[in-house]
Amino acid sequence: MRRVFTVLVILTGVSLFYSCNNKTDTKILENTKLSINKVEQQTDGSIKLYINKAECYSDKVNPSSNTAEWNVFVSQSGRFNVWLSSATIDTVNLEYKNKVMLSVHDNRLEAQPAIDKVILNSSDVDLPYFRADSFMGSLYIQDTGYYAVQIISDKIIPENTTDDSGSEKTKLLSVVLTPVVR
Question: Please, is 83 exposed, middle or buried when counting C-beta atoms within 10 Å of its C-beta (0-12, 13-18, 19+)?
Fold first, then answer.
């Protein structure tokens, strides 16, 4: 009877040891996944989200549902102005077919991008493109911590996509959240 009891105790201990290790491995995997497209707030309070560093989902049939996502660590909460940066050939019309939608926690902004600023000779783009910045609106982030940030737009074009027809005159480059200072 003692042998059976001893064997059961040993087996229980071994199974607990392995199950604890599996939970640790799962936690490590989750933390690794979280850090893949992790973005931290800059010391000046701004948050710069580059499309080429995001987790992107694209649909060739319906590009209006193309999505980019980031895991953002906000260290200074408050009100932020949201700017979109686009690479464009046409500095008069960005040709966004649909509104761009940005989601941060419970906040949601929708806007039809217009050209508010044209940046000549920007290091973000190569000729024949120019960088055009569009003001999207402002939002309030109440608490510090991690947030999932998502943007949906037909101008989120994956890097590995080649378009020989030249029909893509505009593509979304980045989203920048700048703190509003009173």
Answer: buried
